[in-house]
Structure formats: structure tokens, C-alpha cells
Prior knowledge:
Low-confidence stretches: 1-5
Number of helices: 11
Oligomer: single chain
Domain HTH tetR-type: 12-72
GO molecular function, one term: DNA-binding transcription factor activity
Largest sheet: none
Protein name: HTH tetR-type domain-containing protein
Pfam families: TetR_C_28, TetR_N
Organism: Acinetobacter rudis CIP 110305
Amino acid sequence: MQATTSSRKNPEMTRQKILNHTIQLAAEKGVSGVSIQGVADLVGVSKGGVFHHFPNKQKLLEEMIAELLQRLDGFVDQAIAKDPVAQGCFTRAYIEATLQAEPDEVQLWSAISMTILTEPVLNNMWMRWYQARLKRHKQTDDHLELKILRYAADGVWLTAFAEIDDPNETEHMKQELIQRSYFKSSNKQ
């Protein structure tokens, strides 16, 4: 009963806990592993408590993706702010985010990837985010070489995610892709 009383006093904190535990479940089990009851059990609220914040599972998953994309935006913006070279800055940030070895970031990407691969509505949210970032960075990252590097990062991620590759090789590939993003641009695209 303590969790319920605490939840009533701070609904925003409860909402955030629900989102965080949804991310955890999606990262571990994919979309099919996310259930309202499972999230409620992890948070320590009733199913009704989850429904108070999210009217259904689909809305919960959509909010989860929105939360993850917001976190991803922050990560990408920080990486770009630290990058002294404008050309390719988004691509390097994308590669860093995609092939991040930190546990929290791996969980974030796993949750996004597991979800967007299986849910068209959520895939559309991802694509809108990605297209908006490409549009935003058109002057610095609209080059075929950089597009190929982003695609390669996705392939390396898939290989690492499927545990076909070892983490040292993934790190080596990440560094190689980042290094290749520093090239002399010609007008050919």
C-alpha cells in the first residue's frame, strides 16, 4: 500500500517509473514481453495505476519511444557539441549512439530497435525522428559517404545485437567508421 500512497503524491514520478520499466521490459523481451501487468508489478502499482497514466498498451509503447527518442536527442546533441569538425558531426554522433558500449545506452537502443522492428506505428516515429535529424544536419551530413557509414553502423549494431560479433570487434568497427567520417568532401554525392 505504501507504493500506492506514494504514487498518488507524485504522479509524474510514477509515470516516469512506468516508462523506465517499460523500457526495461522492451529491452529484455521485446514488445510482446511488455504487458500492463508486468509493468505494474515492476513499478509496484496496480494495473489501474498504469492505466491512469496510459490508456492502453499502444499509448504506453508510443510514449516509451517518445521518451527514448528524447534521450537519444540529448545524447546526439551532446556528441555534436563536443565535435570540433562540422562535416559529418551528426554521422559521428549517430555511430557513437548506435554502437555505444555503455549499459544504459545499449538498453536504450535495444528497446528502440526491438520495438521499431516489430511495430509499424513506432517505426514511423523512429523514421520521423531520423528524417528530422537528417534535415537538420543537411549542410554537414548530406553526403553519400556519410550515408554509407550510417548504414554500416546499423549493420555493425545488428551483428553485435545478434551476438555474432565480440564487443572488441564492435568497438574496433565503431572507431573505424568514425575515422572514415573525416574525409575531404568533393562535390560528388
